[in-house]
Amino acid sequence: MASAARKKIVVCGGNGFLGSRICKSAVARGWDVTSISRSGEPTWSAVTSSPEPPSWSSSVSWQKADILKPSTYQPLLKDADAVVHSMGILLEADYKGVLQGKEPIYSGLQRAFSTYKSGSQNPLERKPGEDLHPEGKDGQLTYELMNRDSAISLAQEASAANVSTFVYISAAAGAPILPKRYITTKREAESTIATTFPRIRTIFLRPGFLYDSSRAFTMPLAALTGVAATVNSLVGGSLSWLMGAGGTKPLKVDLVAEAVMQAIGDEEVRGVLETPTIEELANKAWRGGML
Fold it and tell me: Rounded to the nearest 10 degrees, how much is the dihedral formed by the CA atoms of 106, 178, 153, 189?
């Protein structure tokens, strides 16, 4: 008897902090795994505690492609069962420039916290295979472009390739230190994808702060965020408006990766997944792995 064909997953941003762990989890489940990013295979010291590639990485096809140029990744979506978008940005260039001392503080923050920046042309009105064209005057990678338009475009391409499941890594909330557009563009992506592509099972994960010991700086931040989340919980979540994601329980990055794969594997799971559901799915995954 012929063996069943392996399921295929394409992870856009698969060489990143969370994306690489989604690839790892998918490999452990026996999936055919393709990662898409501009650089291909990760710089392992940036995403793990070792500069050497882990053993599972040889089972991943590390492909170079540009999320803003669908023609570079369209062939990779062929026969995919699931596609994951894990390529958003936390800080725009204006904000990074201020933090690095490369931009004047006032004008840099004024641009960073502006109420609107351009993304691309309407991704839903693109011609087949047409690139996304950044419409900002300096070609900056904005929240509108990366958090919203690139995700909508990828979902559109996934739909055209008859992919059955699309996962978007969103966020629990913004934060006082981040421009409001960080979270509004993610919510716009969720809404547009859910309403425009009803044929696809869409899953939107909204984790809070992600941490892992391989990124030492995330550990004290996770501890602080955990305290804030506990305080917020004790007052019934009444501080969420002030704390944003800082008032949400931080999650270990491997936990979120396991939750992604568990959600994909369960046909009943769809829509928005908040922290409690993410934890529940990860626990199911680990219990299943122990059987």
Answer: -130
Residue holding tokens 């803003």? Answer: 68
- Identify any residues that bridge with 82 across adjacent strands, giving them in sequence order: 9, 165
Q: Which of 196, 189, 134 is nearest to 160 (CA)?
A: 196
Residue 43 Ramachandran class (φ > 0 left, ψ -120 to 50 alpha, else beta): beta
- Strand partners of residue 85: 12, 168
Residue type, 95: Y
Q: Could you report the per-residue pLDDT of 212-270, keeping only the tens digit for each? A: 988 888 888 888 888 877 887 778 877 676 666 667 899 999 999 999 999 999 999 99
Please report the DSSP string for 209-254 in residue order: -EE-TTSTTHHHHHHHHHHHHHHHHHTTTTTHHHHGGGGS--EEHH
The structure's pTM equals: 0.89
